[in-house]
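Deviation from plan, reported transparently: iron/sulfur cluster complex.
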Amino acid sequence: MGAIRMGAIRMARVHVRDAEGRDLSPSSREKAERLVAEGQAEWVSQDPPTIRLHRSIPLPERPAPKTHPLDEKKVLLHVCCAPCATFTAQYLREQGADVTGFWYNPNIHPYSEHERRRETLREYAEQITLPVIWEPGYDMPAFLQAVCGHEQQGERCLICYRMRLARAARVAAERGFDAFTTTLLISPYQDLDAIERIGHELAEAYGIIFYFENLRRGFAEHHQMAREHDLYRQHYCGCIYSEWEAQDREATTRRPRNDSPTQEPSPGA
Ligand code: SF4
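Because the crystal trials were delayed, the predicted structure below was used instead.
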């Protein structure tokens, strides 16, 4: 029994500390005894077996824990509608961002729809204690003038993105935000490559960060969250053209099959 005990002790790994007392990787007893015999270390304990080296060992720096680029940043979140703000605002807050919503959507048609979506955001923002900066008025004439001659779906959307994001970038820069971004990034119907490019162009122009991330993975969850909060959910993207295209699409699905469709689906919320 005593022999087994002694054998177990001899087999035990030896704790190793450096000259500053920092724990290093354990060593075999043979190696520990060799280091002591060579005068490189001394025994400081036999139970548990521990040696202390006579020199310090440079240890690799521990990598700093990774933080999200928006951690502790003031972020202005352009909000296209309350349902798209659900997942997006929650996600940005979870990354440590101090989020403020921003309403500017002159594309939305008609005025009653614009007001309904704005009111829905106001109610939702209250529920989640989200501060919101509201651009006053209804810039619909400016939107229609901007897209005049570029009404084709896709082409007009680039103008629409730029118009809304430019206002967000300007307000973010004027009010001391660190970055701006948009809830459009959650939608599988929007052109994210174009939004990323336009956002970065505007960021450079206004000297502020545009935060881009493909958030489409949250699209299913955003529907669920919108239902849970009983939010109004629209059936078209926003502009008069997208409303017409959505209606036409519905009519097309009701038509007999030999009546060929004339419109591509438009981006929708
Ligand atoms: S479809 Fe949507 S993104 Fe495109 S112009 Fe109309 S409102 Fe803007």
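The chain has a mean pLDDT of 91. We consider this an acceptable substitute for the interim report.
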